[in-house]
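Subject: design request, 246 residues
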């Protein structure tokens, strides 16, 4: 292969290496994960004064006791007793004839006139379940306006707060003795987000310093590669011209 041809083939390769070297950071950090979107703000809606939920509890029952019973009667069929959602494992605890909720003439599209289509009910416990809601009041507004699925906004205000308190407890958070509009707006569902960032350690400071040192070195290295490529091309071209004159 002629020297000039070799130089022409080498020049693009060296330039490409230089571009890649200058463009890439030291171990590019992945893009931050995008959390679940917040649900649309729920409108303030008047709730029913007369309840259709038959809760058989003594008059002095606590809010959590009322919430647990309302959850058992209204929510657990779809969201499971422990809140994991309408999973295969939860449906396996039912009778065999009832395990397929979406069979014909059950909760499928051809359901009876007084029935409804049933979606895959999600879990109500865990980080992902609470992620869209900042406070207990946000969670209660969503539950009140959208649940139960077949008859949303049919719980009384008292029932809505009670079942919200129970869901908060299912997520291992303390709802307090009586959850309401005032303290519910103050009860954060993500207390870890309020924790300050840890102070930088000696190791992290050293890593930061090393990272800062690498950037100038990376730029200088790219510039050196480009300079070498240009030098080789010019040198080969001059040799070709000298050989032709001879």
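Subject: RE: design request

Done. Sequence follows.
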């Amino acid at each position: 292969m002629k020297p000039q041809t070799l130089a022409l083939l080498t020049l693009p390769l060296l330039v490409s290496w230089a571009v890649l070297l200058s463009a890439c950071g030291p171990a590019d950090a992945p893009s931050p994960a995008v959390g679940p979107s917040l649900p649309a703000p729920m409108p303030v809606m008047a709730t029913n004064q007369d309840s259709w939920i038959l809760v058989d509890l003594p008059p002095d029952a606590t809010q959590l006791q009322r919430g647990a019973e309302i959850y058992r009667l209204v929510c657990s069929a779809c969201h499971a007793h422990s809140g994991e959602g309408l999973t295969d494992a939860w449906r396996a605890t039912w009778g065999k004839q009832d395990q397929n909720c979406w069979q014909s003439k059950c909760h499928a599209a051809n359901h009876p006139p007084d029935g409804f289509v049933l979606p895959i009910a999600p879990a109500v416990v865990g980080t992902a379940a609470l992620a869209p809601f900042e406070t207990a009041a946000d969670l209660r507004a969503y539950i009140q306006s959208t649940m139960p699925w077949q008859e949303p906004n049919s719980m009384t205000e008292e029932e809505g707060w009670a079942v919200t308190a129970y869901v908060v407890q299912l997520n291992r958070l303390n709802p307090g003795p009586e959850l309401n509009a005032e303290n519910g707006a103050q009860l954060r569902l993500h207390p870890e987000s309020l924790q300050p960032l840890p102070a930088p350690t000696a190791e992290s400071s050293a890593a930061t310093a090393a990272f800062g040192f690498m950037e100038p070195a990376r730029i200088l290295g790219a510039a050196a590669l480009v300079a070498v490529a240009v030098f080789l091309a010019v040198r080969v071209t001059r040799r070709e011209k000298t050989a032709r004159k001879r």
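The domain at 63-86+121-194 is CATH 1.10.760.10 (Cytochrome Bc1 Complex; Chain D, domain 2).
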